[in-house]
Amino acid sequence: MGQAAILTVDDDPSVSRAIARDLRRRYGDRYRIVRASSGAEALEVLRELKLRGGRVAVMLADYRMPQMNGIEFLEEAMDLFPFARRALLTAYADTDAAIQAINVVDVDHYLLKPWDPPEEKLYPVLDSLLDAWQATGDREQPDIRVVGHRWSEPSFQIRDFLARNLVPYRYFGADEPEGRRLLEAAEAGPEAVPLVVTADGRALSRPTVQEVARAAGLSTDPGRDFYDLIIVGGGPAGLGAAVYGGSEGLKTLLIERQAVGGQAGQSSRIENYLGFPDGISGAQLTDRARRQADKFAAETLTTREVVGLRTDGSARTLTFADGGEVSAHAVVLATGVSYRPLLADGVAGLTGSGVFYGSAATEGPACAGTDVYIVGGANSAGQAALFFSRYARRVTLLVRGDSLEASMSYYLIQQLAQVENIEVRTRCEVIGAQGTGHLQAITVCDSKNGTKATVECGYLFVFIGAEPRTDWLGDTVLRDDRGFVRTGPDLLVGGERPRGWDRDRDPFYLESSVPGIFAAGDVRASSVKRVASAVGEGAMAVALVHRYLEGR
Ligand SMILES: Cc1cc2nc3c(=O)[nH]c(=O)nc-3n(C[C@H](O)[C@H](O)[C@H](O)COP(=O)(O)OP(=O)(O)OC[C@H]3O[C@@H](n4cnc5c(N)ncnc54)[C@H](O)[C@@H]3O)c2cc1C
């Protein structure tokens, strides 16, 4: 296979020459540097590359170009090379416009002109884009193929799992020619769907998510029996703790029951995380954090749910749902929160078949031209509305409250107002869902005028608040009446330490009622429910683990 390309597009010949020269100097021995002087010319180059089976690692486009600007170009280029990393080159005066536009396409970085010295301003960005592209291999040739049914919950689970873990795969409907060919090759009938065909040609009929994880090369079993630190939950708090634990030399294990990234991994664009003025998608943030944890040798397991925790002398032992145990000196609980179910008639039976909790980004393209309904009034619902408005004919946000102001950030409300195909309906609730095999209609109650109406609806995305799923902790650690884990000063009632506390010090700030067991992020009582605070608490928990280990 030939060298992968780094493509630059700039209509200004002197800028175009200069950037190609700088790129060639640093990357010319490993990558083909290709330059084009307009979006149309660059698309032509990409089409040729595609036909010749070429690969593109990075596309760097100037923002301000006549006819087709950089954003428009990248949007079209994504259809040809969806996994190439994307960067936008802007003049300082254009940054605001570029940032606004970046919300439309998933751009990894924007670079300011001039980029001198390149060692400081260009190469670090390109290095990180190329590392990211290389870490995931050549995504143009995904090895895993999935044959499924559009409206089947098990098919959705597998696609969602692969997408959230950023594992490249190709999906074929069981009724498409290629889907039928794969089923035939596997000597399997329609009952074998979903069928997963692995890189080495094994056909897995109706596999569990854990079997799919193994087939995708994701680790599901711990490499040792005992660790310095085990983190339960792979959202921002858990990933933060894993990066700090690993980087500070602790033998660290992160256990995640589904896919790393947690709630943040489902966010189409996080705009308030420090250091990303143009926002970052949850998938990108997760990808970077996971690679950072790997770099520091923190082990990560996916598809393993923890269902028990006990103290064995100085050891803290965790039990997996499918049996097996693993122990450590210290544990950080970072299990976050999960969506509350929507308790309306018919909804439970259609979950995964048109009704989805969270964004389910895999469904974006399938929503093309349909009417999408979103339930919820918080930022997560607002982000989802913006995301699906790129595909759907119409997006209706159903909000139970009187207005969005009380529950959604101002910047999101402003953005929603600017998108033509988004409608916000307040004081509205879904009271029923109907459909045979998949969602076809919902019944909406509008309390402003007391009406009930049944409307056609193929997709319903639910974002109605969340709760910690911590029942499995039982009485091991103290929780508040909603199930959030109490820590530090929260545990001192009238100056008294919690019952059973056996140290001559107060619990550390993020320490639970059991020494050596900490909580970080959304699962912690009184925590701020934000990505930045979750990451911060993950890091802080590791500092406190060190103090705990020193004082044992
Ligand atoms: C769609 C959406 C958009 C958002 N946008 C923003 C935003 O723009 N800005 C912002 O600051 N915040 C945003 N938030 C909130 C933010 O994502 C959360 O505050 C943050 O993710 C909390 O991180 P966490 O690690 O504490 O928990 P989570 O992200 O909830 O992660 C917890 C993880 O633990 C795993 N887990 C749970 N139980 C177990 C178990 N027993 N065994 C193993 N694993 C387990 C879960 O599968 C999950 O992956 C958004 C949330 C959503 C849902």
Automatic annotation (TrEMBL):
It comes from the Bacteria. It catalyses: [thioredoxin]-dithiol + NADP(+) = [thioredoxin]-disulfide + NADPH + H(+). The modification 4-aspartylphosphate is found at residue 62. Residues 5-128 form the Response regulatory domain. PROSITE patterns: RESPONSE_REGULATORY. InterPro entries: CheY-like_superfamily (IPR011006), FAD/NAD-bd_sf (IPR036188), FAD/NAD-binding_dom (IPR023753), Ferredoxin-NADP_redctase_2 (IPR050097), Sig_transdc_resp-reg_receiver (IPR001789). Keywords: Flavoprotein, Oxidoreductase, Phosphoprotein. Pfam families: Pyr_redox_2, Response_reg. This is Fused response regulator/thioredoxin-disulfide reductase. The gene is trxB_2.
